[in-house]
Amino acid sequence: MPAKKDIPNILINAALKLAAEKSWHDVSMIDIAQTAGVTLADCHEHCTGKGDLLRRFIHQIDQEVLADLDDADFNEPGHDRLMAVIMARFDALADYRPALQSIIAARGDLGPSDSLRAIKTHFGSMRWMLEAAGFKTSGLHGSLRVVGLTAIYARTFQQWLGDDSTDFSPTMAYLDRELSKAAGYDRKVEKGLGKAFKLCGKISEKRRRFSAKASENSANTEPADIRQ
């Protein structure tokens, strides 16, 4: 019996091995437990199901990409940094392509609740990839960046899954085009939000002055006996 601390990783590896061999839809938790060499009770203790194992796998990939970051990369332009981070992610996923093709074909075999958790997980991953490339992800602008990169990554991921080249140059070219287009939208959003914040600031200041003036006028018009 493997050490309990190792069981989650063993389950993930077993699940991906089975996904590479047959349809992900046909992979059961019993199959995963038997392949991992653990009991079904151990599976229950360490994960909530197949969707949970996929989320843990995505977290592992996040960790691997972030651990390989080089401080020197932050001296490069943002576009180049983000390109490098996303391609590093694909490099980390390369050994699992057959399994991922099976999982994507079955759309993850996720129910409604697991689908919502998967979306949240992907948003979290893309937020970290943006931060790793030096982009701010806080506030409304940052949230829009996360949503935008999530959509770009999903399309590029599909391109990568079908890319039979030895160096994934078609995937790199596709990602380069998508990020270049997104950069133009990002600048427009930044400019538009800047104008909107300034306008909101002016409106708030006018409202504050109006309220202060109204309070002053109300105090000056009170009956003399009340003021005394």
Automatic annotation (TrEMBL):
<dbReference type="InterPro" id="IPR013718">
    <property type="entry name" value="COQ9_C"/>
</dbReference>
<dbReference type="Pfam" id="PF08511">
    <property type="entry name" value="COQ9"/>
</dbReference>
<dbReference type="GO" id="GO:0003677">
    <property type="term" value="F:DNA binding"/>
</dbReference>
<dbReference type="InterPro" id="IPR001647">
    <property type="entry name" value="HTH_TetR"/>
</dbReference>
<feature type="DNA-binding region" description="H-T-H motif">
    <location>
        <begin position="28"/>
        <end position="47"/>
    </location>
</feature>
<dbReference type="InterPro" id="IPR009057">
    <property type="entry name" value="Homeodomain-like_sf"/>
</dbReference>
<protein>
    <submittedName>
        <fullName>TetR family transcriptional regulator</fullName>
    </submittedName>
</protein>
<feature type="region of interest" description="Disordered">
    <location>
        <begin position="208"/>
        <end position="228"/>
    </location>
</feature>
<feature type="domain" description="HTH tetR-type">
    <location>
        <begin position="5"/>
        <end position="65"/>
    </location>
</feature>
<keyword id="KW-0238">DNA-binding</keyword>
